[in-house]
Structures are given as structure tokens and as C-alpha cells.
Amino acid sequence: MKKRVALEDFYRYQYLSAVRISPDGSRAVFVRTEANVAENGYSSYLYLFDWETGALTQLTDTGRDKAPLWLDNGTLLFQSTRSEELKKRTENGEPWSYFYTMPASGGEAAEAFRIPAKVFALWPLADGRFLVKCERNNNYPGLHQAEGPEKEEALRLQKENEDYLVADELPFRHDGEGFYNNLRKSLALFDAAAGKLEFISAPLADVEHVALEGDQVLYSAHEIVKERRMRYPTGLYTYSLKTGAAAQLLEETTYRIRTCGYIGGQVVFAGSDLKRYGNQENPWFYVLRDGKPQVFAQNEESAMNSVGSDCRYGGGLTYKVRQDGIYFLSTMGGDAVVKRAGMDGRVETLSRRDGTVDCFDVGPRGIACVAMKNYRLQELYTICGEKEEKRSSFNDWVFEELAISLPQRVEFENCGCAMEGWVILPAGFDPAKTYPGILDIHGGHKCAYGAVYYHEMQLWASQGYFVFFCNPRGSDGGGNTFAEIIGRYGEIDYDDIMKFTDTVLERYPQLDKNRLGVTGGSYGGYMTNWIIGHTDRFRCAASQRSIASYISMFGTSDTGYSFPMYGFTTSLWEDPGRYWSHSPLKYADRVKTPTLFLHSENDYRCPISEGMQMFTALKFHGVEARLCMFKGECHELSRAGKPLHRARRLKEITDWMDGHLKGE
Fold first, then answer.
1. What is the mean pLDDT of each run of 10 residues along the chain (664 residues)?
2. Alpha carbons 565 and 550: distance in angstroms, whole number
3. 191 pairs with which residues across the strands?
4. How far is the CA of 167 from the CAs of 23, 231, 312, 353, 410, in angstroms?
């Protein structure tokens, strides 16, 4: 007999990422990650997939290996800290990256080189050097090249200034990365034989996307200048590996670029001009002709996987430019698929709508991808034309051992707009009984829910709850128009969520309307705060990494003022009333709902002060409230936080719901 899902089951889930296909297409390498409870962290291993035989081979066993790429058809390069010494140096914040090579056929890994910087991506060049996207510290510009007494003095100054944080630009910190003032993601050339790193992008340029064609480097970037206000547009730049000549192809005035590359020798990019739908506008596809962008494929739908789950870890390719077009992920309703935009203007869907593709690579034989399909957890899949095959079984045990309750799709309409949601029935559902329920609201706002495995939802169902969730207006997956709710936060989205709740209660009479809880994180936390200030229909709430006031968020979030200005099309000083009227804190004196607030100490997206404000407001007005704060965690606590912290977070929410919904 299958057992019900338990909180600790997520310790056994396997997470896949970073799939890369060999140049000849015969094999693919990827990363498998699992929770390491003993160290309260994660262990990652490299695996090889043989396209011809379907065989899977584990290549490494240290638990510290990541970011693999192919040097050639038989050799892999990857990043690791294989010795205890290197591990400690990394944990202590030393900005070095360590790389190893090993035969793809297996065998011992050998250290290849060390780069004196934090490396985000790396590309091997024909002359034996490497193109590197890495962190550049403009506070200590010569540190990566210094030697002897000069280096010792630079390190002494850096150590001396560790206790002081000085900001003179925006943004000055990033969620998950910490204090970021005067740091940049830069492009550099690394000579492994000499151990020398030479930066080739401008000191103030923050590099985003990179492509190679022959001896030409193409990249998108935007300069963070102290005198300039924050903005989204990025420019396009080239650098000649042969001559060292640099040039700007596209000024940083118009486009927010999502990827770039070469097709038939022409520069192409995916980008948004932000004129119709603001900074979350879905990109179109452009080719640069005579220095001017020309659209070759229009696209009103999503160009990312924004379908949420708490069962992913690690990243991978979400765009790839090839000679037959730009491949990208796209959210369609509650699914995320692979699409291709061709130079003939056609945008084709290349994978089935039966879950989410999380990352992919494209090679001579087809597409290899990590996906969550048919409500299963992540596995490796291949796509060859219309043929899709599941190639791994790391998480098959979940459905073999656990009693899983599958989501039931619910269609509804509000204000003439068709929407969808899902309901997960409580484990052991008896239609003659009544049950409590939990409304779960996604983040974003431009994210989405789908029929994709969520551990927290399955846990609550196993504990005897209805779990219901939907995609109101503002969500991704329905095109630009559906996602655009500028200036209407807490209005049409709130109406949609309440209409969905009414629909679920009508269709499932076993759901007790007097025993409902509500929860959500980020934008879902904002909506939870909003809901408790506008209705008493929920007996309790759990607000996670939330927003309380757009006035305070204006100057404290790592998004800076750009997010609220996009949302309200005006500044705080031009229309403070608008900012305040859309802030849940304004309505906190109306709240009667007992509410749990959860926030991470190092959350720079929705700073911890937001949760504190709502908690304080409820306590001030005599409402039952509890605040749980997590040290050392950021905005990604529920998805990538330390395993024991993730477990405590979920226990806090579950205990809160149990205490308020399961009593009389």
C-alpha cells in the first residue's frame, strides 16, 4: 500500500539541470542534485547520456561538480571544489573558480586551471584560451592580476573594508548575490597556460548574453553609471578576438534583450522595446540589417518557463541560437514548451503541452531537455521531431511509493475573460465528508501555475486538505494582454481569485467554506496581505516573502524603483496616493484574519521589512500574528534554500493551517 506524502520526502527528490549535448550529438552531459541533510546543503553529480544506447552513466561522485561543457566529443570541462582546502576557500568567500577535465568515457578528473574570479559561464576558444563571463570588482580593479606584495596589500585592504558597505549606484545589491555595488558581470579572456585574466568589456558594463561566431564575440550589456537612473534597455556589442577591436552595434536606449547570436552571419536577438506592455513585455525576434533592427518573427506569447514548482534546483539553457532559428522556452497556459522562431517569420512549438520543459540543448539528433511531464518530477527527455522519450527514472519512486493526488482542471470566467485553475483533492477523499482547504497564490505577478508537481501541495493534500490554485489576470501563459495589469494590482487579480474560490466551492461541496486558509509567496504574499485586508472569508493566512507597502519597496527592493514605476506608470512623488492605495498596509486596520508571516533575512527582492510591517500592523490592531524569519536565506527559500530551512518553513505553514482549520 502506498504511503501518504510526508514533509521529509523532498529530501529524496532528485533535481536535474545543465544538460549539454556533445558537438557530434552522440551524447549529453547533465547534473543531478540531491539534498544533503547532514551538511544542510546540496550535492551535485555529473551524468552522461548515450543517445544511441540510451544508457545513463554517473561520471562523478564528489557531490561538488557543476556547470559541465564539452571541450570536444571526448572531453568534459566542469567546475568543482574537489579538495577540502578548495571547499573551505570557496565557503570563506574567496573569489576563485576551479575547473577540472575528465574523459567522457569515464576515469579520473584532473584539475585544469584556476580562474581568479567568480565565473558565471565559459567558452573554449580555438587558440586554447577561454572566453569567460565572470565577476569584476571595480572596488579593487587590479586584484585579479596582482602578485606578491601588491596582491597582499590589495587583500589586506579588502579584508579591512569587509565591515563597511558603501553604495553610490543603483542597483547596489541583488537577491541571492548580496551587496553588489561596483561589481559587474564582465567578459574576459583567460590564458590557462599563463594563468592570466584580461577583461575585454567596459569596466561599468554588466554583461548579460554572449555568443561566438568565428573570431567574433557578440554580447548584450548595459552600463550601470552612478549618475544614471536604473533602466532596463541593453545594448549590443562585438569584440574581435583577432584584432581586439570593439564596437557597439545597438545603443542602450530601446530594447531589453533576452538572447543574441548569429544566423547566416547576421546578428539576431530576442528583445522587447517595452513600449506596449512595459518591462515584462514578451520579446519579438530581430535581425540587425544596416545597423537597424528589423523584426523577423513577431511573438505575443511568453518567452520563458514561468510555471512554478518547488521541485527544481539548478539552471540550464533556456534560449539557443542556431542556423535554423532561435530556440526558446515559452509558457502556454499551465505548460512550458520549447519553441523555435525561424527567419521565415514562423514560430513553431516543438514539444508537447504536458508539463514543463525546464532547460534544454539542441544538437544534430534533436533536443535533450530536463522536463516535468505528466505531473512527474524532473527527468531527462529527448525530442526528435514528434517523438518524445523519457530517458531517466530518477524520480519514478515517487509515484511507485507515494499516494499522489492528481490536480483536476477547473475552467472559469470573470468579466468575460476565460481562465483556468486546478484542485487537488485530499488524500483518501470521501465525497460524504467535508474538508478544509488552502488557496495557494503564485508569485510574479507574471508567473503561472500548472499541473506540475508541487511538494507543498501534495503534503497538504496528504494532510487532508483541498488545495486549489489558479492563474488570474496578470499571470503568464495567456499572452501580453492577459499578463498586463499595470496600475490594477489588487483589483482585477483579486476579483479573479475570489471568483475562482467561489467556483471551486460551488463545484466541490465537500470543501468547507468556513475552513479556508490562504497562502502565497512574493506576489502571492502581496495578494495574501491584500486579501486579509479586503475579506474575512479565510480563517487563517500564511504570507510569505511579501510586499506590504509600495512606498517602502520603492527604495529597498533590488528591483529599485523600476518595478513600482512600471506598475503605476508614475513616481512616488508624482502620485504618492496611488502607491499607498495599492499597498496592503493601508488596509491592515481592517484585518481580522490570524496570519503567519515568513520572511528571509537576506531577501533583497521583497525585503524583510515588508513582512515586519504587516506583522507589526496586525499586532498593533490586536490580530493574532506570528513572524518566522530565516537567517542566511534569500527570496528563493522555498525553492533553493537550505534543506532544513525549507522543511522548517513548510512545517510552520502546515502547523499554522492545522491549528486554525482543523479545530472547531
1. 96 98 98 98 98 97 97 97 79 84 94 95 96 93 69 74 86 90 96 95 96 97 78 91 97 95 97 88 96 96 97 98 98 98 98 98 98 98 97 98 98 97 98 98 97 98 98 97 91 98 98 98 98 98 98 90 82 94 98 98 97 98 98 97 98 98 82
2. 10
3. 196
4. 44, 18, 34, 46, 49
